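call fold(seq) -> tokens
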Amino acid sequence: MNALHTPLILHADDARVLVFDSATHVEAYVAHYPAEAGNVVVAASYAGVLCARMVMSARPRAAIGLDCGIGKDGAGIAGLWYYEALGVPAAAADSMTAEMGNGSDLYENGMISRVNDAAQRLGLEPGLSVREAVQALVDGQRAPHPFDPARRRVVHTGPEGRSIVCTDSIAFALPEDRERNVLCTAGHTGRSVVDYFRGFRPWGFICSDGATGKNNSGVSALAAVEADGIAGASVDANTARMGDGQSTYFDGIISAANALALAKGVRMGQSAREAALCLLS
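ret:
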């Protein structure tokens, strides 16, 4: 085993933390030391699918890599959902806070930028240091309130008592949203969601345009619900992550809106945050 490829081994309560300069070193190390499988792995490689496959050779208890700027098609963090499918908590650190190829620097100085749902259940969140994240992965002491798969978050409440609520799908709307709240969700705005809007009747909504698609099908629900008196808009799918309602709200830029939303002041090119306030009025 090349000494340069041997990880820094840290002890944390009942677990060991293996800190590698590269995910490419993991498989060879665990093949040489099979008893080391099942520990937390920190590797200063991008948190993509290829690297996740390499790290999974160690059957990790949890894993942390680098986001490498996230990059084209989100490839820098795509491994987080590979881990998620396998039930492994995983996170990525901002590559502007830790050196690529330097595991010690990642562990000592890295700051978490992205987490998967399995990690979020253990209390991990963007803004934690990698040290804090590792401790949370080991001891579970940061565990929040029971994890909400709908990821519902109230981001603003107006003086009339109406709120702007983020949730990942319009299918996760609640009875309390009816005629009261503006929902920022993250599916497309096509015809299959019309029945949800009519059933839940939010005060207003913002979804994704799904890159509009064939025959503008990704925004066809906007016009369909006008007759129901529901104001709605869509954000450009290239500005906000589909499936992430909070990204719709915090990152999205409006690309389409129905006449009711336009009458409330929603405009193309507006931030979703501004548009949501318009819809709340």
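The two ends are 65 Å apart (CA to CA).
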